Please model this.
Amino acid sequence: MKALLSLIILTFSMQSFADCDLLLEDSNTCIEYTWTNGPHLNSRAERNFSELVVKYFDADDTSETALENDLIKVLPWMIMPNMEHGTRPVITTQLEDGSYLISEILLKKMMGYWEIRFVDSTDDSVLASFKIQ
Ligand SMILES: [Cu+2]
Model:
């Protein structure tokens, strides 16, 4: 009985997380992201912008309909051995299907790694992130 119950719970949780690249548990919101250009790690003289498409949708919505999201900001962030920092501001454009194009992402190659952070635009707290490989 206990095993059956665990199986049911597991099945349900797998369904609701099915296509989530990142899950915001507090708001039960899925974040799906796709690089449409890059990511480019630029050496000193280069200046190739990267582009990312981000879609937010309710984790329980199997149709994965895009939600409008003014509260979350995309912030590229570099973590170095002795310091952390951002880069120039990105440009956010809402697309026709309700997802967002994040453009002019400028990533420089340096000692450390970049991550893409999803931050609360009111207080800059980090809600989710992924490491750029
Ligand atoms: Cu740096």
The first helix runs from residue 2 to 16. Helices lie at 2-16. The chain has a mean pLDDT of 90. Residues 25 and 59 are 9 Å apart (CA to CA).
